[in-house]
Amino acid sequence: MSDINWSSLPFGYFKTDYNVRCYYRNGKWGELEVSQSEEITMHMAATCLHYGQEAFEGLKAFRGEDGKIRMFRPDENAKRLMRSADGIMMAPVPEDLFVEACAKVVKLNERFVPPAESGASLYLRPLLIGTGAQVGVKPADEYLFMVFAGPVGPYFKEGFNPVKFQIVKDADRAAPHGTGTIKVGGNYAASLQSGFRAHAEGYANCIYLDPSTHSFIDEVGAANFFGIKNNTYITPSSSSILPSITNLSLRTLAEDLGLKVEQRPVAIEELKEFEEVAACGTAAVISPIGQIVDRETGKEYNFGTEAGPTSTKLYNLLRGIQLGTEPDTHNWNYIVE
Ligand code: PLP
Ligand code: COI
């Protein structure tokens, strides 16, 4: 695709050639189908439209400098989608079907996988929805699993330069014993108002706190949080955070780099002790955080205008593995052939 300016792509929808779909009917998954349509036809009483039976995933494929195309840990996204399906009583997508569908959509849209040096990647969006009709509040008996893909650039326009976030106490993305740990559409609906307000007030997004006490850090918009102090990688544990596959990988890489790793509640006041803080996720990769402002108290936490040394090391190592320039010692890449 010579007419795509790969290095200036935003993070957004991009029409490609094909998507893949699979229907669950009569208690079983059918064949994987290839489609060129951007549309879905469904029953007006489909449960995804009324009762939020919808879950999605996000993962990336990268073209390496060796020309190979690698998907990053699709098996982990498959497992998370199974947990999401279980959480809102949808038919689970078997791991093999999930990975096969992702590989197929990459292969079919190979011409849209950005070149290695562009910094862009092919973002895959697997989607599982209840398509069966119900009017009572019940799970559907029919489901659609599909995967579409499109080339994307950085999630935050700042790229690997520090961004500003706002701590909010008057909005939660999930309830204390709700759906925060699974990737369902309702969590994102719940975050729209506060996210848009944060943008309007000059921030990249919100930092959500634990919804029971509003004293511990949960998540950073659609990304996890980590901080570095005393040679330790610290990331919150909470019952309302989405377990990030990027964060899972960074914990391993941090250990490989000789850091200690702690996953435990992180109180707001601890922010002042961190040497570096960042957001991490598939879309966000690692986004260093330069400033955090508590919207309620106005208190500011500043972390400098450049990415810190440990975040930079982690970023280079993660990107290197994804692009095939660093050894994939943990066998995370799935090569699409
Ligand atoms: N937290 C939320 C709420 C997200 O939407 C995402 C993105 O998927 C993440 C964290 C990061 O997770 P991952 O690294 O698996 O993309
Ligand atoms: C991700 O895949 O990292 C995201 O959560 C992206 C976001 C647009 C929902």
Gap between N and C termini: 20 Å
- CATH fourth-tier homologous superfamily of the largest domain: D-amino Acid Aminotransferase, subunit A, domain 2
* Structural shape: globular
Work out the helicity level. 10-25%
CATH topology of the largest domain: D-amino Acid Aminotransferase, Chain A, domain 2
Using only C-alpha atoms, the radius of gyration works out to 20 Å
Contiguous uncertain segments of 5+ residues: none
Strand content: 25-35%
Ligand list: pyridoxal-5'-phosphate, 2-OXO-4-methylpentanoic acid
Secondary structure category: alpha+beta
Counting H and I runs of at least 4 residues, what is the number of helices? 6
Major sheet description = 9 strands, antiparallel
Total domain units = 2
The CATH top-level class label of the largest domain: Alpha Beta
Q: Mean pLDDT, rounded to whole units?
A: 96
Topology of helices and strands:
Elements (H helix, E strand, L loop, with lengths): L18 E7 L2 E2 L3 E3 L11 H4 L3 E3 L2 E5 L5 E4 L1 H14 L7 H14 L12 E10 L12 E10 L10 E6 L16 H16 L4 E5 L7 E4 L3 E6 L2 E4 L9 H12 L3 E4 L12 E6 L3 E10 L5 E3 L6 H15 L9 E4 L1
Parallel strand pairs: 9-10, 9-16, 13-14
Antiparallel strand pairs: 1-2, 1-3, 1-8, 4-7, 5-6, 5-7, 6-18, 7-8, 10-11, 12-13, 12-15, 15-16, 16-17
Helix pairs in contact: 2-3
Bound molecules: pyridoxal-5'-phosphate (PLP) and 2-OXO-4-methylpentanoic acid (COI).
